[in-house]
Structure formats: C-alpha cells, structure tokens
Amino acid sequence: MSSDLHIHTTASDGKWEPKRIGEIAYRLGLSYISITDHDSTEGIALALKGAPHGISIISGIELGAYFEHYDIHILGYGFDYQDQKLQNQLAKMRDARFYRAQKMVERLNELGMEIDLTEIVAEAKGENIGRLHFANVMMARGYVKTRQEAFEKFLNKGQPAYIERFKLTVEKAIKLIYSAGGLAVLAHPGAIGFRSLEEEIASIRLFQSFGLKGIEVIHPEHSEERTSFYSNLASELNLLPTGGSDCHGPSGKDTIMIGKWTIPDEWAEQLLKQSHILGI
Questions:
Q1: How high is the pLDDT of residue 79?
Q2: Domain span at residue 201?
Q3: How far apart are the first and last CA of the chain?
C-alpha cells in the first residue's frame, strides 16, 4: 500500500474540492493522504467529513517562508488544525493576501485592464485569494487567452502585475507548526535552487536547529538521482522522509494526478508516531 502526503484543494490553489480528493484517493487504494493547502487549513475538516471509509487523513499545511533570498516551503503534518495560535497567524496572512490582491488589481488597472477587486473576491468563492483567481478573471474578461498566458505575461515573478506575497521566516514557520503539535518538513528541496550542495546541506542543518523534523524525498520535481540523494541525506541527518504528488488538480497535459508520486505507508506511520498528537 502507498500514501500521498502532498495534495492541494480549492481551499488554496487546487482545482478539486476536499471531498473529491478523498474519493479519488479511495479509488486508488491509498492508505494515507494529507491535504497540504497553502497557508490554509480550511480543507482539512471538509476532507475529513467527506472521506470514504478506509482513508486516513493526516492534517497538513504548506507554509510559504523565506530564508535569505530563497523561497522556502515548509510542510506541517499531524498538528491540531484548530490551534488558536496557528489560526491567528493564518488570519494575519489572509489579511496580507487581501492587501496584495488590492495592489495587483491596481497594477492591472494601470496596464489597461478594467478589473475590480470584487471580481477577484467573487472568483475566489471564499478561498484564499491567489494568482490563479486573477488568471481566471483575466481570461473570462478576454484580456488573455489562457491561464498560462496570464502568468507568463503578467502574474509570474518579474512580470508587471506580480506582487510578492507575505511569508514567514523559515524559523517562525517551523515553530508555528511545532507549537500546534505537528512536525515540520522541508518541501521539495530540489526546487529551491541552492547554489551548491554544500550550501543546501548547511541550510538544512540550520533548519534542523530550528526544529525541522523531515524532508520531502519524493516529489515530481526530483529526478531519480535527486530522490536518491535526499533519501540518503534524510538517513544521514536523522530526518523523516516524506513525499507526494503535489497535485493541484487537472491542468491539461501537465496534470500531476493524486497518487502519481507516492510513499510507503511506513513513512506516513513514522511521521504520525513522532508528531505530538497521532494524526487528527
């Protein structure tokens, strides 16, 4: 049996609702899954409520963070998703997202696109506002033909409508997860872009000193060689190995489906055993 511990839903930038995730995982015969939405726990309760019998759901989140000039994502697992300190911080991050959305609307207006913030909010349907919602509105209004065009010409980093989103420091992200009873894991290290292996290993050791407990070994962006490297590194540094598909739902030919990249059930069980609370 296998598990997928990196899945996004409509609670952030995924295209499938949490209930649908559980149904798909059940059909695939997965044992454990984790809903790891960006800076949000809203999908967890919905996934639990609609999960078919036989699917175990581990609480999860993917926090955006920074270290020096690097964008870092920290995954949290096995925490109390109703923890008040965690929810207070996520509320602050939602407020920052709204301010960011306002600034992005202003940029698009300056570029000649008559888009209003209320359109973006309506498109988000109560979810955390993200660039995908902007792309959808831009496409619906005829300013771009595809979402890809919206990102490549306007919304990606370095493009005219891009506004950096609020992020925690790596240390704060790790400690926030720990304070809610969970374990912090470094997400897709192979996608970070460290300048050298020496810098990467030194950074991971530093993150360990902050309380990092695991490293995402299996991920679509990791080659076979990198997967082997991270597996050995996890063993060497006594870090828990994790992984998953990082599925965001259907996106044409580039779709990465739930269960395409999985981990042994033993990895998920090790993670739960070491968390402060056994799952949710």
A1: 95
A2: 2-89+167-274
A3: 21
